[in-house]
Amino acid sequence: MEPLLLPGERSSTLQGMVPLEWVLLLAAALFCIGLYGVLSRRNGIAALMGIELMLSAVGINLVAFWRYLDSETMMGQAFVLLVYATVIAQTALGLALIVAVHRTRGTIVLEDLDLLKESPRFPPYGED
Amino acid sequence: MTSQQILFIVLGALTLAAALMMVTRRDVRRAALFLMFTFFGVASLHVLLEAPFLAAVYLFIYGGCTATFAVITLRRNMMDTPEGTGGHNRQWWAAALVTAALLSTIGGLLRWTTLHPDWVVSSTPTPEHSISALLAILMNPEGLALPFIVSSVLLLITLVSATTIARTR
Q1: Residues B45, B12 contacting (CB under 8 angstroms)
Q2: Which domain holds residue B165?
Q3: Residue A125 lies in a domain
Q4: Which DSSP symbol is given to B88?
Q5: Minimal CA separation from A61 to chain B, in Å
Q6: pLDDT tens-digit series, residues B35-55
Q7: Which domain holds residue A24?
């Protein structure tokens, strides 16, 4: 369908297209849901899943900005590919940490992983 | 409202519903399956945004993640403890407040302010042969060849580190 706006004309909506604000709002909602998952879940793997949701929202944002602002070249998509490579690296390392923690501590409940927590036996640095 | 907008609303609603189901399930295995549904929804949004190759790559990467999540959480001794690992911690209400505040802030900014004036919507179509155009940028020394090599080194280092951390002594 032919766009009614001339190239360079300022608007956020082309004829028949989804407005950019809708896509950004959807990505923000997905990001916030993932953030809730990270902050409120007890299981470490469930928290990692929340992080995956947040990174998916970032990907939607990047693809939307590529499509709406710079769709002549594929530079935006190439950048998104590099972002996804970083995501898979982070996921692999996170899962490896979960496996190692489970082996040494016997639990992956985030509330029970409190080795760095201050306790009466180990006063803060500087106090005797 | 055009058909594309209706399709976007339907796909977006399904994706958000799957994401909400994922963060509210007590059973981590069910959460992993809902995460897979969410990834399919996001991949469909990639297709709607005219990035089909990225949708396929997204499904490979994230769908593969979910399969790994599901396999790991299916290990009974990791998934459950006598106290139960599912569900939410004591601060779930604070998390809900924070995320609701963040979402309303972003929504308010999008609704009540105009977008940046330099954000001019491009009306030119996307490149015809997308994969060859993508590779032309990724393999071009004046394009993204160096970040591409750096990301491959990052993946190598990460995977070696992950196997070192996770291996049994």
Answers
A1: yes
A2: 127-169
A3: no
A4: B
A5: 10
A6: 999 999 999 999 998 888 999
A7: 20-112
The per-residue pLDDT for range A8-67, each reduced to its tens digit, is 443 444 556 788 888 999 999 999 999 999 999 988 889 999 999 999 999 999 999 998
Q: Hey, are the CB atoms on B96 and A45 less than 8 Å from each other?
A: no
Residue of A12 and B97 predicted with greater confidence: B97
Which amino acid makes up residue A45? Answer: I
The pair of three-digit structure tokens given for residue A30, joined into one six-digit string? 């997905």
The tally of domains found in chain A comes to 1
- In contact, A28 and A49? CB cutoff 8 Å: no
The answer to whether B35 and B64 are in contact (CB under 8 A) is no
Is the residue at A100 inside a domain? Answer: yes
Q: How many domains does chain B fold into?
A: 2
Mutate which of B8, B30, B78 to test chain A, going by most A C-beta atoms within 10 A?
Answer: B78
Average pLDDT, chain A: 83
Cα(B138)–Cα(A77) distance, integer angstroms: 10
Residue A2: per-residue pLDDT: 44
Q: Which helix (H) or strand (E) holds A32?
A: helix A20-40
Q: What are phi and psi of A43, to 5 degrees?
A: -80, 135
The angle at the Cα of B149, spanning A86 to B128, to the nearest 5 degrees, equals 85
